[in-house]
UniProtKB/TrEMBL annotation:
Species of provenance: Serratia marcescens
Residue ranges annotated for the FAD dependent oxidoreductase domain, each copy included: 13-110
GO molecular function: oxidoreductase activity
Protein name per Swiss-Prot or TrEMBL: FAD-binding oxidoreductase
InterPro entries in the cross-refs: FAD-dep_OxRdtase, FAD/NAD-bd_sf
PANTHER family: FAD-DEPENDENT OXIDOREDUCTASE DOMAIN-CONTAINING PROTEIN 1 (PTHR13847:SF287), SARCOSINE DEHYDROGENASE-RELATED (PTHR13847)
UniProt keyword Acyltransferase, yes or no: no
Amino acid sequence: AHASNGTSVAFNVQARPTGQWLIGSSRQFDAIDSALDMPLLAAMLTRAQHFLPALAQMNIIRCWTGLRAASADGLPLLGVHPRHSWLWLALGHEGLGVTTALGSAALITAQIGRQTPEIDDSPYLAARAFAAEELPV
């Protein structure tokens, strides 16, 4: 996942077909609920206005937040479940699922085909998340 462990804001904007703009984004690695954090929203909008000053004249019509699924160690879990050979996992990418999709797919494809992947897959093996405890499936 990202090389950060604190709260951070970034800037991205997407034009929507409705003429509205979708503005984001932020990360809170210690958040346990999806309640809207107003100071974080203010920081995000301040950053966005730095790049697009016209935003100061616009109205906000909706805000939302959510949780990004991440593994405990920050790396995605890729590979066969250690106790259920029919279950393949590709999860815990945090906010990088789309960005890392091709690499994850290449690793999973090599694993399923019992081939050597182009990169070392040992840091990503799903089995590491199940070594310490029994989790029902």
